Amino acid sequence: MKILLATPRGFCAGVERAIAIVERSLEKYESPIYVRHEVVHNDFVVADLTAKGAIFVDEIAEIPDNVTVIYSAHGVSRSVQNEGAQRDLKIFDATCPLVTKVHTEVRNFREEGCEIVLIGHAGHPEVEGTLGQVDDGVFLVENARDVELLNPRDPMNLAYVTQTTLSIDDTREIVKALRDRFPNIRSPRKDDICYATQNRQDAVKKLASLCDAVFVVGSLTSSNSNRLREIAERSGVGAFLIDSAEEILPSMIEGYDTVGVTAGASAPEVLVEGVVKKLQLLGGTLLSQASEVRETITFSLPNELRTTIESDAE
Which residues does 109 contact at the CB level (< 8 Å), separation at least 6? Predict the structure, then answer.
């Protein structure tokens, strides 16, 4: 059995920044350090940060005064920001800059009088934060069928934005349905689906074309990891979303000639290494592959958390 790795895979710049904000805060400030919501959707990362001293909570009300608080990479609503600002808290915002871009689009479109269609998954924290950027005038759609149920006040004055971690193919279908029904709908100046999501989805499509099965390393709560599994499955191969190597059973690879491994944007490389080792123990041979896409994007940390070297480099 051959083992192929997708490239790129794993951590994106937004995830790296969010984790670094928590780790630097733990180093610089007295414990406890509170994090509102899972800083990224990965059980291994959350457990590691918890072991280092981070305390994860669901709401600001659970946090005592005079401590450091970090907002997760998924972003928060204006009401959460206001609640935090009214408390005696030291706050760092680890919202991914690409999510912040969507928040800005929503506010700008609304200030211009547009109602907004948000394409995303109900209940996801990124979607909750985006919906909460304005008081009203935002409609959530999850699929093309939802578009038929929209009832905006002014169909001629409508715009759309998207969750950053969606399936590119699914989103394209929904956007087409929106344009068919509302020909004048305005779009973001640049696509909202982030570069890392696009790159990882392209990579898993190619990987699936070469494999009998694909293992996606990522947690069930991770939107982008779930999309990778779905894409592999639609390609007609076996598709498994796993948190770690311990979930791999011999029966999952029985009869396969080639298996692929990738990871969602919130899954660390150490988990990928563990999966590869498990597959090797089960008889697999890792093949070397040339990297086709090199990601060079980085996001800076808040000024207070930067090292002297980082500050000098800028």
Answer: 116, 159, 161, 186
Amino acid letter, 304: E
CATH number 3.40.50.2000 given to 98-181: no
Give the pLDDT of the chain (314 residues) as one tens digit per residue: 999 999 999 999 999 999 999 999 999 997 789 999 999 999 999 999 999 999 999 999 999 999 999 999 999 999 999 999 999 999 999 999 999 999 999 999 999 999 999 999 999 999 999 999 999 999 999 999 999 999 999 999 999 999 999 999 999 999 999 999 999 999 998 888 899 999 999 999 999 999 999 999 999 999 999 999 999 999 999 999 999 999 999 999 999 999 999 999 999 999 999 999 999 999 999 997 766 678 889 999 999 998 744 554 55
β-sheet bridge partners, residue 117: 139, 160
DSSP-based helix, strand, coil % in the chain, nearest 5: 40, 15, 40
Please state, in angstroms and rounded to a whole number, the distance separating the CA atoms of residues 28 and 31.
9
69 neighbors 84 (Cβ within 8 angstroms): yes
DSSP 8-class letter at 96 = -
Q: For the domain covering 2-11+195-286, report its CATH number.
A: 3.40.1010.20
Domain 13-95: give its CATH code: 3.40.50.11270
DSSP characters for 162-230?
E-TTS-HHHHHHHHHHHHHH-TT-B--SS-SS-HHHHHHHHHHHHHHHH-SEEEEE--TT-HHHHHHHH
Helical (H) or strand (E) element with 285? strand 285-286
The sheet with strand 138-141 has its strands ordered as 138-141, 115-119, 158-162
Helices (H), the chain: 13-28, 43-52, 78-85, 97-111, 125-131, 144-147, 168-181, 195-210, 223-234, 269-281, 308-313
What's this model's pTM, rounded to 2 decimal places? 0.92
Residues labelled as active-site residues: 126
Sign of the dihedral defined by the CA atoms of residues 89, 309, 49, 218, in that order? positive
